[in-house]
Write a structure and sequence with these properties.
Elements lengths: L3 E3 L4 H6 L6 E7 L5 E6 L2 H8 L2 H10 L3 H9 L4 E8 L5 H12 L19 H21 L3 E14 L5 E5 L2 H8 L3 H10 L7 E14 L1
């Protein structure tokens, strides 16, 4: 069964397809991209509330529900409904909080899951939500890290004997110079003019090194 629905075209499926299924859902305004995160132990029963116009209008008059007011303003055809996940009743509040943090849902007036009037959270649940909030903040901070890419050009040096047998290979002229106990300037001169006055044969190849750092 699909988990993404048009609130207008898929109304019947939303109202009848998720009886006795508990989970987390998301309403998204197709035009503004704003979201509302909710949860229920019976999703189909919960969705019925969204199709009771009198209930929506009453909430809109009291200015007590951003999502109800938005549905009245934009109409169902401009909303999509997504079942984010099915989970047990005991996990609902924690998972709802996770998605509120993840999406920073604009239509959620209350930013703490389960904090509705008359709904008291256990101390254990509060601690788990607190940890969830910290982890989400850390993840968001990590996503903001900058990736720096540097391109470093160099010269690879191969040294052969007079029989054209490879003696050694170095990733830079400086390293090769230290190995030969000579100056880098001398090797650059050989690379430029192609002439050496010793018993070695040199091959110089340009290289490109890509360095990626995350800060």
């Amino acid at each position: 069964m699909k988990k993404l629905f048009n609130a207008d075209l898929d109304k019947k499926l939303l109202l009848k397809g998720f009886y006795n299924k508990s989970g987390i859902y998301c309403w998204t305004n197709i035009l503004t991209k704003e979201k509302y995160i909710g949860s229920s132990i019976n999703l189909s029963n919960r969705f019925k509330d969204y199709y009771k116009l009198k209930k929506l209008e009453k909430a809109a008059l009291k200015n007590s529900s951003k999502i109800y007011s938005a549905i009245l303003k934009y109409d169902y055809k401009n909303f999509k409904v997504e079942i984010l996940e099915f989970c047990s009743e005991n996990e609902l509040i924690i998972r709802e909080q996770f998605y509120i943090n993840l999406f920073n849902s604009e239509y959620n007036i209350l930013k703490i899951a389960g904090s509705r009037l008359g709904h008291k959270l256990s101390e254990e649940t509060r601690k788990i939500i607190s940890i969830s909030n910290r982890n989400t903040l850390q993840n968001k901070t990590q996503k903001k890290k900058t990736i720096n890419i540097k391109i470093r050009k160099g010269i690879n040096v191969k040294i052969y004997n007079s029989s054209y047998e490879l003696i050694n290979e170095f990733h830079s002229i400086n390293c090769a110079a230290r190995y030969l106990n000579t100056s880098a300037t001398r090797l650059r001169r050989i690379a430029k003019h192609g002439k050496s006055y010793d018993n070695y044969i040199y091959k110089f190849d340009s290289t490109v090194q890509i360095i990626i750092t995350i800060v």
